[in-house]
Amino acid sequence: MTYKQDEKQIYYSGLGGPGSQMIGEEEEKEVLEVIRSKILARDRFEDVRKYYKVRNFEDEFRKYMGAKHALAVTNATQGLVIAMGALGIGPGDEVIVPAYTFIASVAAIVAARAIPILAEVDTSLNLDPEDVEARITERTKCILVVHMKGAPARMDEIMKIKEKYNLALIEDVAQACGGSYKGKKLGTFGDAGVFSFDYWKIITTGGGGMILTQDENIYRRCVHYSDHGHEVYRQNEDLGERPLIGLNFRMEELEGALGLAQLGKLDYIVLTMRKNSKYILDNIKDIDLFIPRQIPDLEGHIGNGVTIIFNSAVTAEDFYKKMKVEDIEVEWLKESGWHNYTNWKQLLKKKTLDKSGCPFTCPRYKGKVEYFEGMCPKTDDILARSVTINYNRTLKTDKKEMDRVIQVVRGILEKG
Predict the structure, then answer these.
(1) For 142-173, what is each residue's pLDDT tens digit?
(2) Cα–Cα distance between 19 and 132 in angstroms, integer?
(3) 201 is catalytic
(4) Does pTM top 0.90 for this prediction?
(5) CB half-sphere exposure, 150, CA atoms < 13 A
(6) C-alpha 346 chain-centroid distance
(7) Given 53, 162, 201, 334, which residue is catalytic?
């Protein structure tokens, strides 16, 4: 499905992510079909139902990304937990994860009863492969790659590490749906790739997520875990033995309907953001007070924001404050809330729902891990010097508005 822009069909709320701003007649049509059918469940009622929104969304998403299998789930956090469970990751295992990511990436590891091992990021704002390798122990089971702010991680180096140490690899693609690395879609490199469709993401179903995998066995285990041990679409509905004790993390039809409509707009969203980011960066990159964020594959970056890394943290903070005065939306990454490990106080203090402190006190864990502010000095330094210009908060950004952003940036930095 190819989406063609029609201004009359787009409502720019400016409140959520790009997908939320694209909600229009296509979403209404898909959702109304579900409501009028009165069948809100993704399974059963085969003898009377006309629509299979979740199934179709999974199939279209799978084909778009170039994956063999896709499973729609309640959200990306649970998608990560499901994927880790399907890969056999659990008590006693260590999972390497970047110190700069949304806390959900780390929370999912703890929910799987494994141990998060925080690793440094480099100037791509993604995992530093050299530091990843330095943190591998005999307990390391998996690398959790997060493609932050729409840009791919250094997948060539990371894949070599995965193969060298025979590790599992999960991709968190929550912020990079539609991105790629050397022509291959993000989310299809590892054993599993997990996407988010919440209201602030690239495309949205309000909530929801998707797991991709090329491995049928991993897919089936994800299905079992996400739906009470059932086979896909409850093909084994009758009472009887199940392969495992599963839970309920199903996406249902209303979200699937929204996903179908939104997926048709993904190319437009990515192309628009990529074009805008290139225009802004091309007109400020000659300034010698910063370097642009390093993008391992420019053609694979979806362009959601322009991140620049200053020569000093003092300059970055000053620039951030002056841009705020000019009412231009910017983010100083040192103060990026739940994305900066120094704010994960519950992790630093190892606070979990389990009063015994599991998984950190699990007898199967033979290592020793401590978390503290300053434990990732390279990440601290990079985040303190980095500012993102979030001009794509609304896709309605036009050349006049971008020219104003460029003028303000140059005015602030050239005056010193």
Answers:
(1) 999 999 999 999 999 999 999 999 999 999 99
(2) 33
(3) yes
(4) yes
(5) 26
(6) 21
(7) 201
